[in-house]
């Protein structure tokens, strides 16, 4: 057999090519990598921890010489350390919550779509009911039920509600796929239903799901920051971009850097992730434009 | 310049041209550079004349006339000249062009469902055009709309005015499109593939309607199509286009009977080969009438279907109540080794439902299906699955029937993985390659993905997948309708040779009677899910007994311009009834010219005058 | 159309019931009951209080009483603010929050849809790019960043508008909150409208309408716009949810006395009747608004009514 691997293999290489030519996306990827690197390396770059109090420098504006590159807050904590600690925490929580919600959503949607009939009806009615609540309300309720400084609970709450949209999308994809003739062809061949699901359905659904996955992460970051801003998420003294911005908003008339610096990081993260997600979607489905 | 173009100018003494194109070219600016869709097109059409423009898809036929109407896509450019009644169209302002469009030139498009605005009623759309181009009041516009609908033979016109496009059948929608185009009495009508997505009987009706309208109004008609039969019935002159150029022009009689260009010749020959009204002794040699062989010579029964019925529940009612749609009613047939049975019928006839119910891919409401002597529904799922290796299916959509994420090799290997577990990788590969060779695919294609193949190649892969296990029955569900003519020929030949070598049974489903004739010894005609007639192919085509079979055969266009116009004017009107509310008694009676009172009272029983033949009609004895 | 509307309305009832049941479950079964905050009470006092609030009845009876009370609009007493019932508290803040929400949606629609239509019609490289940039920003910027930033620019530096507060209810206190709330939705609507309209303008029926000589503006408005708005109307549901959750932040940032603070503060203080009362009210509101969006969709697309 001719091992013609170079001859335009499949949709992945096509998509990768389109992605590389999209300069905006490449820039976004670069910025994202930079921020992540900074966040991970932060403890090595600065002597201050996120909760160390420096009595001599309270509410100082950013000053490269004094060692507090982003300034300090009212309690004398170094904002560089706090901001980047916040970035780390936000990224960690969001990625994990996204993974949880993706896992649940994909399974739920694929089973509902593939099973069809009554099972599908009940499964999706459940999703519809949960969907009808502004989901943040449910998250708020869940976090209020448990002791508040529990990151695991926050994670679970975010992931447990975020799977709804994934489930809907996966189910729609699965339904559309079920009608495609190659699924019928597999049945006609005598392939078992499980094998059809695993060999034919899932690989074909993963494409759109992968694209959607990159758009979930910024949503999770947003939700987590939102909760922390309101006081229900990450608690003091731990830093999250959300609660940093909250404090910054209070102090913005006298110390604007306390708002602007964490805000810039949050906006940069969200913007880059959204651009990346959009770029991926365009790369896989060029009809979008 | 080739001599075939000297007759581009109409003969002296004919009326002046309504539309004349001179050196018209169309180009598109794409990211890959400039693409030329048409070049140096010089054509004209006069009042009362029909010009047929034929060619394969991609030949540029539609683009030329879209350019004339100023409807090219944003990245398209037209140059040259297009004169309509002394006005140069290509240089008009958009406002002036709007006045010509609709009032001067009317256009009918291919797919009426997507060419009618979905959220406006028929009446709204008609009134809108009338009010735009004519100085009439709203009430007068409504009156005119009704008259128009009547003229295009729309049933219940008053009711239709308030309906939305999706509530109408395909034929009805196309008639509405024609009414819209004719609303302000334009001197020229351009019809771009007006019949392609319609059933063959409806196609014939629409073409007959266009012919009648042309005669009545003395208007010029441009018919763009790849169907030479349509052209034979309607066109006075024919222009053949290929790769953006006009390669031959002349009267219909000359071009179709004695084409001078080589390409035109091959087009006409291909079309003739599928012409059912021509030589009926085109049954492939070696094919013997199945019923004539005695039972001993015939093989064992591969598939036996008894009184099969399939009902679907559709629509919403209160508390989930649904209307019943009888997609299939009481169909019985039997196939033995080596048989080739064709199933023909139009949309709504239940052909695809039959294929799927026979293979138990659909749940049958009533009736029995027996595979190779065993009833699959009585078997446990695993046993049923293992029986499937002997009954295979190929599909209508060549690309859609292949998993886009699997290579050709993986696709054809899958049946082996399911049913021949014992084979090792090398043996599997050898089998796969051998099967690919058998269906005419080069071994290099094994590593390709479906989207990298042509439609014909995809269909061959589907056939390879079906053939790799050496099945005893092959069911083909409209496998050719998505392919172009030359590819259809090749696949038909392939199927014929495969069937002849391996003696497998063939169940070939199609709406195209001409193709069925080439492959099948017996033909079953379905209408609205019920059997109408079963006969050997030769008998059916030469002397059809059932009125519906006669209507079907009369609707197949002939490529002979001497006889087709007359056949076209003999076409009967009549809408297919809704499958949700089938007529009482014989379901065909609403369109049958021979219907009597008894036809409405009782459902005709299935009679078998000779073994292997059957008919369901109250009056067949009197009529033959 | 009527049967479609009735079907849709009927579909809401089970969802509402689930929300209410969920609310009841949380209120009654959550850890940390109403009397656990202070020092432990003496047993007979506790028993009396429980009898007073009906907490000694079996659960099914409590459930029915809860349903009955809801139908009267009685959500029970607030646990954190002992002098008020939940209904009174919500009643205090609802007018402001409702005004904010409705005006925000209206503003977003009024800005977003025309912007999208114009962008689709004037297809030039510069408008495309600037619109893409604006919408990307609008979508990525969270309201709790935009709000304080706008307050910083317009309130502190330029002093054109008040930074926060709601003294006397003068309209200028609503300007910044409205803009903060409506901006992301307007941006998304613009992008959605543009993309959808571009696609519809390529559709065969639009070409056929032009072929009938109906003229550009008429074709655009009468034939192309309605189908193009379908995805926009579909988005209204999520948009409403977005605005509702966004109002929580906006009310917090701009210190507006709406109902948002009750939800957040109630969650922090574990005042379950208050929190669940809010959930029921907002849930019902969301369902009602989604119903309107659904009905609008059915009106726009005759084909959907028969599905």
Average of pLDDT of chain B: 85
What would you call the shape of chain A?
elongated
Helix percent of chain B reads 25-40%
Q: What is the name of the CATH architecture of chain A?
A: Orthogonal Bundle
Short characterization:
Chain A is an all-alpha fold and 289 residues long. Chain A is built from ten helices and no strands. Chain A has a single domain (13-40, 77-288), classed as Orthogonal Bundle (MetI-like fold).
Q: What report would you give on this structure?
A:
The complex is a heterotrimer of chains A (289), B (624) and C (307). With 289 residues, chain A is mainly α. Helix content of chain A is 73%, strand content 0%. Chain A has a single domain (13-40, 77-288), classed as MetI-like (MetI-like fold), CATH 1.10.3720.10. Chain A is elongated, with a radius of gyration of 23 Å. Among the domains of chain B are: 15-274, Rossmann fold, CATH 3.40.50.300; 380-471, Rossmann fold (3-Layer(aba) Sandwich), CATH 3.40.50. Chain C is mostly helical and 307 residues long. Chain C has helices spanning 2-29, 43-52, 59-71, 86-121, 125-140, 143-157, 172-201, 204-211, 216-253, 260-269, 272-300, 302-305. In chain C, α4 (86-121) packs antiparallel against α9 and α9 (216-253) runs antiparallel to α11. Chains in contact: A-B, A-C, B-C. Chain A binds chain C through residues 125, 128-129, 132-137, 140-141, 143-145, 218, 222, 225-226, 229-232, 242, 245-246, 248-249, 252-253, 256, 259, 263, 266-267, 270-271, 274-275, 278, 288, and chain C through 14-15, 18-19, 26, 30-31, 136-137, 139-142, 144-145, 147-149, 151-152, 156, 163, 195, 241, 244-245, 248-249, 252-253, 263-264, 266-268, 270, 275-276, 278-279, 282-283, 286-287, 290.
């Amino acid at each position: 057999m001719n091992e013609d691997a170079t001859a335009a293999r499949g949709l992945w290489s096509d998509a990768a090519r389109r992605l590389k030519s999209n300069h905006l996306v490449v820039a976004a990827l670069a910025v994202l990598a930079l921020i992540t690197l900074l966040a991970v390396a932060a403890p090595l770059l600065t002597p201050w921890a996120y909760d160390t109090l420096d009595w001599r420098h309270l509410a100082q504006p950013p000053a490269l010489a004094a060692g507090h590159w982003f300034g300090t807050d009212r309690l004398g904590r170094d904002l560089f350390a706090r901001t980047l600690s916040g970035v780390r925490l936000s990224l960690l929580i969001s990625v994990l919550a996204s993974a949880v919600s993706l896992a649940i959503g994909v399974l739920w949607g694929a089973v509902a779509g593939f099973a069809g009939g009554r099972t599908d009806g009940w499964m999706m009615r459940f999703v519809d009911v949960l969907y009808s609540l502004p989901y943040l309300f449910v998250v708020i309720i869940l976090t209020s039920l448990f002791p508040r400084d529990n990151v695991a609970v926050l994670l679970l709450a975010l992931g447990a509600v975020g799977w709804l949209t994934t489930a809907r999308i996966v189910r729609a994809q699965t339904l559309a796929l079920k009608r495609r003739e190659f699924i019928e062809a597999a049945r006609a061949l005598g392939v078992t239903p499980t094998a059809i699901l695993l060999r034919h359905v899932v690989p074909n659904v993963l494409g759109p799901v992968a694209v959607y996955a990159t758009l979930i992460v910024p949503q999770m970051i947003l939700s987590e920051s939102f909760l922390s801003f309101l006081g229900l998420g990450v608690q003091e003294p731990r830093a999250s971009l959300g609660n940093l911005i909250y404090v910054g908003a209070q102090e913005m008339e006298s110390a604007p850097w306390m708002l602007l610096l964490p805000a810039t990081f949050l906006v940069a993260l969200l913007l880059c992730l959204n651009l990346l997600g959009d770029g991926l979607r365009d790369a896989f489905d060029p009809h979008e434009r | 310049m080739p001599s075939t173009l000297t007759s581009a100018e109409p003969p002296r003494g004919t009326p002046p041209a309504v539309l004349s194109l001179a050196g018209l070219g169309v180009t598109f600016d794409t990211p890959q550079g400039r693409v030329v869709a048409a070049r140096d097109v010089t054509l004209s059409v006069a009042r009362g004349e029909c010009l047929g423009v034929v060619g394969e898809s991609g030949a540029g036929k539609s683009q030329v006339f879209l350019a004339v109407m100023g409807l090219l896509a944003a990245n398209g450019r037209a140059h040259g000249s297009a004169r309509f009644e002394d006005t140069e169209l290509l240089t008009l302002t958009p406002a002036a062009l709007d006045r010509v469009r609709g009032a001067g030139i009317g256009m009918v498009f291919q797919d009426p469902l997507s060419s009618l605005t979905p959220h406006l009623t028929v009446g709204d759309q008609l009134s809108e055009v009338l009010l735009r181009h004519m100085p009439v009041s709203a009430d007068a516009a409504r009156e005119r709309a009704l008259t128009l609908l009547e003229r295009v033979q729309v049933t219940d016109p008053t009711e239709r005015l308030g309906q939305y496009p999706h509530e109408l059948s395909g034929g009805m929608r196309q008639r509405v499109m024609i009414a819209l185009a004719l609303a302000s009495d334009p001197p020229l009508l351009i019809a771009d593939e007006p019949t392609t997505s319609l059933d063959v009987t409806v196609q014939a009706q629409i073409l007959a309607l266009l012919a009648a309208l042309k005669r009545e109004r003395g208007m010029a008609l441009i018919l763009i199509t790849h169907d030479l039969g349509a052209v034979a019935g309607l066109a006075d002159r024919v222009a053949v286009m290929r790769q953006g150029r006009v390669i031959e022009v002349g009267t219909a009689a000359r071009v179709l009977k004695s084409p001078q260009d080589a390409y035109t010749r091959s087009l006409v020959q291909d079309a003739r080969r599928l012409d059912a009204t021509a030589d009926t002794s085109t049954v492939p040699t070696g094919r013997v009438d199945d019923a004539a062989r005695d039972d001993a010579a015939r093989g064992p029964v591969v598939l036996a279907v008894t009184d099969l019925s399939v009902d679907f529940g559709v629509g919403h009612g209160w508390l989930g109540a649904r209307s019943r749609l009888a997609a299939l009613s009481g169909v019985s047939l039997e196939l033995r080794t080596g048989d080739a049975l064709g199933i023909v019928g139009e949309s709504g006839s239940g052909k695809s439902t039959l294929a799927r119910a026979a293979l138990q891919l659909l749940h049958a409401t009533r009736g029995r299906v027996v595979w190779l002597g065993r009833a699959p529904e009585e078997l446990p799922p695993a046993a049923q699955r293992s029986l499937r290796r002997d009954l295979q299916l190929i599909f209508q959509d060549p690309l859609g029937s292949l998993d886009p994420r699997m290579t050709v090799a993986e696709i054809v290997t899958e049946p082996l993985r399911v049913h021949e577990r014992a084979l090792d990788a090398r043996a599997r590969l050898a089998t796969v390659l051998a099967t690919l060779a058998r269906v005419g695919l080069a071994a290099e294609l094994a590593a390709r993905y479906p989207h990298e193949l042509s439609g014909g190649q995809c269909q061959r892969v589907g056939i390879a997948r079906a053939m790799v296990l050496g099945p005893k029955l092959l069911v083909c569900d409209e496998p050719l309708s998505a392919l172009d003519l030359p590819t259809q020929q090749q696949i038909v030949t392939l199927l014929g040779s495969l069937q002849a070598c391996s003696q497998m049974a063939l169940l070939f489903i199609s709406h195209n009677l001409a193709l069925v004739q080439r492959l099948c010894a017996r033909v079953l005609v379905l209408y609205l899910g019920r059997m109408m007639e079963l006969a050997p192919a030769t008998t059916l085509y030469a002397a059809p007994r059932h009125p519906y079979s006669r209507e079907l055969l009369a609707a197949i266009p002939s490529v002979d311009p001497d006889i087709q116009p007359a056949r076209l004017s003999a076409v009967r009107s009549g809408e297919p009834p809704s499958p949700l509310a089938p007529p009482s008694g014989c379901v065909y009676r609403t369109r049958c010219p021979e219907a009597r009172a008894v036809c409405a009272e009782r459902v005709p029983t299935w009679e078998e005058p000779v073994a292997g033949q059957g008919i369901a009609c109250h009056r067949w004895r009197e009529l033959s | 159309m009527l049967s479609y509307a009735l079907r849709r309305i009927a579909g809401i009832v089970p969802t509402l019931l689930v929300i209410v049941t969920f609310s009841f479950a949380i209120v009654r079964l959550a850890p940390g009951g109403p009397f656990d905050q202070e020092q432990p009470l003496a047993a007979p006092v506790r028993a009396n209080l429980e009898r007073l609030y009906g907490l000694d009845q079996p659960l099914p009876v409590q459930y029915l009483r809860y349903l009955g009370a809801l139908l009267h609009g009685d959500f029970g007493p607030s646990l954190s603010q002992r002098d008020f019932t939940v209904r009174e508290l919500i009643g205090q803040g609802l007018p402001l929050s409702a005004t904010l929400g409705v005006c925000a949606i209206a503003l977003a629609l009024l800005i977003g849809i025309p912007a999208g239509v114009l962008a689709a019609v004037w297809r030039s490289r510069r408008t495309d790019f600037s619109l893409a940039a604006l919408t990307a920003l609008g979508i990525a910027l969270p309201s709790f960043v935009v709000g304080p930033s706008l307050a910083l620019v317009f309130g502190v530096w330029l002093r054109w508008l008040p930074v926060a507060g709601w003294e006397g209810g003068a309209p200028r206190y609503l300007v910044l909150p409205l803009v903060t709330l409506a901006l992301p939705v307007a941006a998304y609507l613009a992008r959605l409208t543009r993309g959808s309209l571009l696609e519809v303008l390529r559709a065969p029926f639009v070409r056929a309408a032009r072929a009938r000589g109906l003229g550009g503006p008429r074709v655009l408005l009468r034939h192309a716009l309605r189908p193009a708005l379908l995805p926009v109307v579909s988005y209204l549901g999520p948009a409403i949810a977005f605005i509702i959750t966004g109002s929580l932040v906006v009310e917090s940032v701009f210190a507006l006395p709406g109902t948002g603070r009750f939800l957040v503060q109630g969650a922090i203080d574990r005042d379950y009747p208050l929190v669940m009362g809010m959930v029921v009210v907002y849930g019902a509101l969301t369902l009602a608004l989604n119903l309107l969006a659904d009905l609008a969709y059915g009106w726009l697309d005759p084909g959907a009514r028969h599905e």
